[in-house]
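Why predict the complex rather than its parts? Because the way molecules touch one another can change local conformation, and only a joint prediction can capture that. The input here totals 322 residues.
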Amino acid sequence: MTGTKDKLFYALLAATAAIFTYLIGYIFLVTPLAQLQAGGLAQKIFYFHVPAAYAMYLCGAVCCIASAMYLYNPTDARDAAARAGADCAVIFGAMVLGSGPLWAKKAWGVYWTWDPRLTTTLLSVLVFVSVVMLRAFAGNGEAERKFASALGVLGTVTLPIIHYAVVMWGGNHPTVITKTGGGLRHPAMTHALLVGFVAMTLLAGLLLWCRTRLSLSLSRVARLEEQAIATGQIDY
Amino acid sequence: MTQAQPEPTSATLADPNSRSTEFVAVQGGGETTSAASLLIAAYLVMWGLLFAFVLLSWRRQARVETRIAELEKAIAAGGGDGRAGQ
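Output of the joint prediction:
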């Protein structure tokens, strides 16, 4: 079974590497430049920035579902998935918040503005950072795990607010992706974005897999330490 | 009520020496930061974060696997030589 899992993992890794290689080549060799008001060459940040935001939503959703399941019926696997979801949501959120201001500098003339979507994104990432910090420093007891799970569920509630922030409150942030087809005026732009979504989905899957495995290993260490202390094999 | 701003004359703008004695406001000066450098910085930030995250996860996983092996060895030994201190 472990051999099958390993093969699947390496197949996923190879597929992710291949699709990212294709995506980077496509973005720089095929996708045309956008208008100067959108940032010109800097607009090419968009093809990673938006899929990274989508991956943050995806990892937040994993965190929320696993946390809710853990609160309903606690198991190590559910706790590990919730923890992995929060970890990965933070890293994708950092990618979004790191790349967005650099694009904004060219398109808007400033790195940061307290635009509704930017502000709600920052708040959501900070909620997931608090989940990660809580799990890292508050111990690994049942109560701490449940509190972190509850915070994980609450953190995910903020994600739809990011999505609808522009619709509800306006702001500078572009709204090129809409239900009615969006504002990508060249087929290559649409293709690059769609490939970006696929690539980030695979990457999110890989990272969630690795972090879930790590969390399960940490739980195993905790149980083995308890067992070793109880039998006097290690000093407390 | 706003005061009308004097229009800069072409002679003023054309004279290189005037740069040290006056500053003339212009409309739509635009953002001059290089798009290429911003693009490269954005890609470096994103990939740097990702690689750091993967590297830290990998190293931590390796440490945890070592710890598991130590603990299992200690428990299997049932005391004596197999003590694995905290």
